[in-house]
Design a protein that fits this description.
Keywords: Carboxypeptidase, Disulfide bond, Glycoprotein, Hydrolase, Protease, Signal, Zymogen
Family: Belongs to the peptidase S10 family.
Largest sheet: 4 strands, mixed
Radius of gyration: 18 Å
GO molecular function, one term: serine-type carboxypeptidase activity
Number of helices: 6
Helix content: 25-40%
Shape: globular
Organism: Aegilops tauschii subsp. strangulata
CATH architecture of the largest domain: 3-Layer(aba) Sandwich
Protein name: Carboxypeptidase
Distance between the termini: 31 Å
Order of helices and strands: HHHEHEEEHH
CATH topology of the largest domain: Rossmann fold
Oligomer: single chain
Length: 161
């Protein structure tokens, strides 16, 4: 039921993490996932929970570069409303790859002819796409647009222009 959701955020439920926690803390689910039982699993640690995090590399750019050099098709996407990993910071990281552009920045569309976002392709099979109206968890905010991107990736071609 999408009633009562914020305008422009159809399909996104800000309480989703609470449903996830309730689901993951069900004994039957923990057993099915072979997870530690009798544990209070959290969707995202809060400040009251000790948070033991060892940061990874400062940048994923070297890893992406190695994967592209090895011939893998790499797609990176960002929701244009993402406050966690902003589209601006992602674009700066993509720029740091120093890859020649093969298809310039252009709009891509959903089957309903709505702008789904923008996309640019680079030499070596690297593609960067934005998803219009999506936050950090793109499929939660814009499931249809996320599906268009996934389908395009699996087909090995850019989303419809």
């Amino acid at each position: 039921n999408l009633q009562g959701l914020q305008p422009g955020m159809a399909g996104y439920d800000p309480c989703m993490e609470y449903y996830v926690e309730a689901y993951l803390n069900t004994g039957e689910v923990q057993e099915a996932l072979h997870a530690r039982t009798n544990t209070n699993w959290l969707a995202c640690p809060r400040t009251s929970v000790p948070f033991h995090y060892t940061p990874g590399p400062v940048s994923v750019v070297p890893t992406i570069r190695r994967l592209v050099e090895r011939g893998l098709s790499i797609w990176v996407y960002s929701g244009d409303l993402d406050s966690t990993c902003s589209i601006t910071s992602t674009r700066y990281s993509v720029k740091d790859l120093n890859l020649p552009v093969t298809t310039p920045w252009r709009a891509w569309y959903t089957p309903d002819f709505e702008v789904g976002g923008y996309v640019q392709q680079y030499e070596g099979g690297f593609t960067f796409a934005s998803v219009r109206g999506a936050g950090h968890l793109v499929p939660s905010y814009q499931p249809e647009r996320a599906l268009v991107l996934l389908y395009s990736f699996l087909k090995g071609r850019l989303p419809p222009g």
